[in-house]
Specification:
Length: 263
Amino acid sequence: MIQLENVSVKYGDAIALHPLSLKINEGQFTVLLGSSGAGKSTFLRCLNLMNNLDSGHVRVSGFNGNWNRQKLQRLRRETGMIFQQHQLIVRQTALQNVLMGRLGYHSVLRSLFPLSKTEQELGLQSLKRVGLLDKALCRVDRLSGGQQQRVGIARVLVQQPKTILADEPVASLDPATADEVLSLIHSISQEGGISAVVSLHQVDLARKYADRIIGLAGGRIVFDGRPEELTEAKVDELYRNRRSEPKTEVSGRLLNLPVPLAS
Ligand SMILES: Nc1ncnc2c1ncn2[C@@H]1O[C@H](COP(=O)(O)OP(=O)(O)OP(=O)(O)O)[C@@H](O)[C@H]1O
């Protein structure tokens, strides 16, 4: 369980997250929705304390007392992160990239030497789980975008995480591949009882996979409920600012079009 208590974040004078409090329960698949700049990435980074907080506390089950360096290292080791742009080393093989997920378990000195056979087997099992065992020795830049994201997921699996945080993991994929990749993250979360918090721009995918949807707007929670409670009116409210912008722009451009003369 992760609990945020009055957590707020500012960048300079700009407030990215207004004070908010909530709990993320074990095994829950939570989707964050909200227009660009709503605060989704900032919120995700608060969950494993990658962001400095302006106020409030983050409590995680299994971690008592104040956060010190060792506890933060353990928290980040137990939190798998998946990114939109995969953050892979493209000149290395899929397996080498996956094994990077084990680095948090070793000292800098130890990580200069090859990992144990057990860890290498764990890497292969993770690639098998994401359907890419046959690509283990392929360089990542020879893989498709969807396959690269699967490598990113396998890298998270070798961490044996308690929580998965995914920041727009399917934003650069076509709709069918996006569905497949999200379905994979969802099944990994369900099978392992791993909490997942995933930010998305696709409301249909949020409705399909989420146990819980949190809607952010202007750094505030404006919706928190089950997918069936997210009505069209609430979606409109969530994206109101973003949705109105293109209409204004288009109608503005249309107004400037030369009006054809009647013949
Ligand atoms: N490092 C930073 N320095 C200054 N301002 C920042 C920084 N990171 C984010 N912000 C600002 O904080 C606000 C929230 O940003 P955040 O990236 O959390 O939103 P988001 O919902 O994830 O957006 P997107 O969907 O575009 O990724 C935005 O106004 C953004 O410009």
